[in-house]
Amino acid sequence: MKFVKHILLTVLTFLIFSACKDKEIIKEEVLRPVQYQVVGTSDAQNIRTFSGVAKAGDEIELSFRSTGIITTLDIKVGQKINKGDLIAKLDNVQANLAYEQSVSALNSAKSAMNTAKSSLDRIKSLYEKGSNSLSDYESAKNSYQSALDQYESAKRNKGIQQSQISYGYIKAPKTGIIAAKNSELNENVSAGQVIAILNAGDHTNIEVGLPENVINKVKLGMIPDISLSSLEGKKFNGTVIEIAPIVGEGSATYPVKIDITDPAKEIKPGMTASVTFNFSSDQDQSDTALIIPVKAVGEDGDGNFVFLITAEDGSSAVVKKHRIEIGELTTNGFKVKKGLSEGQKIATAGLQTLLDGQKVKLQ
């Protein structure tokens, strides 16, 4: 009986160990991310949507024009500021010292000028009476002119140093709302360092970055459609008011600013927006040919192919190698003669690493 129990215990232990081992072998399937595009006509390719960000119509970066320690900074994010209100102040130790030195230099220069003027008047009187030579008179005139020049220079320097003191104050250039506060009290800041951002003006703009293949199609005055994810079901009209001639700092896109022509109070700076451009024109002839990107087309010994996105379940799909016949190469890609239908989805990147029937994750 004990022998039978021992056998049963051994078998049970083996089964439990085998089950745990099987569980350890099972690993979560890692799917390769794949970018895709919906097949459409040339006309459809002219309608493009890009992501943007809502910003105040007049966003002002506030900074000092001199260096120092902040002694006054009585603002909060969201606080309303009226034009002319004091926002921040520096200790201005160096500026005040330089101003005092300029005042002292001006007083010294004024005294020297007055002395030179008195000497000139005296020597001129003696010269007219024949008691002084012409050279003495000319020397006195030169001394007075030099003292006068130094006085004028000291007076200008005093004005400059007085302006330097004003550089240690930040006053609101317009009425608005404090959108950001980047510095704190007693912080040592440098000239040009942004300490706060003021949103002024009633208008709201959308800033969007456009790639180089479409930036030349955008014109001032163009009217794109705007929607915001936070305001579902609402559409807004906008007008292109600025087109940057160079790429934005830290990006590979060209910043474009769009003024919302029918703004709503619900639109707040920082909200994400979708901006849809229609790049077709009335002069363009309608083209119903299907267009696919050049990078979506592969080639092997049997001809051209694409990877169709099939068996899609929302987040993942299966790619299938599919033969096509391509035609003319346009600025938007290849025209498709045969093998695809409008609305089908195709992979647009990494064709060399995809396999027929491979399960992927859609991006």
How far apart, in Å, are the first and last alpha carbons? 63 Å
| Helix proportion | 25-40%
What is the 3D form?
A: elongated
Mean pLDDT: 82
DSSP E strands, number: 23
Low-confidence regions: 21-26
User: Widest sheet: strand order?
Assistant: 4-11-14-13-12-15
Largest sheet: 6 strands, antiparallel, barrel
SSE arrangement, N to C: HEEEHEEEEHHEEEEHEEEEEEEEEEEE
Radius of gyration: 38 Å
Query: Beta-strand percentage?
Result: 35-45%
Q: Would you tell me the structural class of the helices and strands? A: alpha+beta
Query: How large is the count of helical segments?
Result: 5
What does it look like?
Helix 3 (about 95-130) packs antiparallel against helix 4. This protein has about 375 residues and is α+β, with helices and mostly antiparallel strands. Residues about 20-25 have low confidence and may be disordered. The protein is built from five helices and 23 strands. The strands form five sheets. It has a six-stranded antiparallel β-barrel. Strands 1-23-19-18-17 form a five-stranded mixed β-sheet, with no helix packed on it. A four-stranded antiparallel β-sheet has the order 3-16-21-20. The protein has helices at about 1-25, 40-45, 95-130, 135-165, 210-215; strands at about 30-35, 35-40, 40, 45-65, 70, 80, 85-90, 170, 175-180, 190, 195-210, 225-230, 235-245, 255-260, 270-280, 290, 300, 305-310, 315-325, 325-330, 335-340, 345, 360. The protein is about 30% helix and about 35% strand. The longest helix is centred in the N-terminal third of the chain and has 36 residues, at about 95-130.
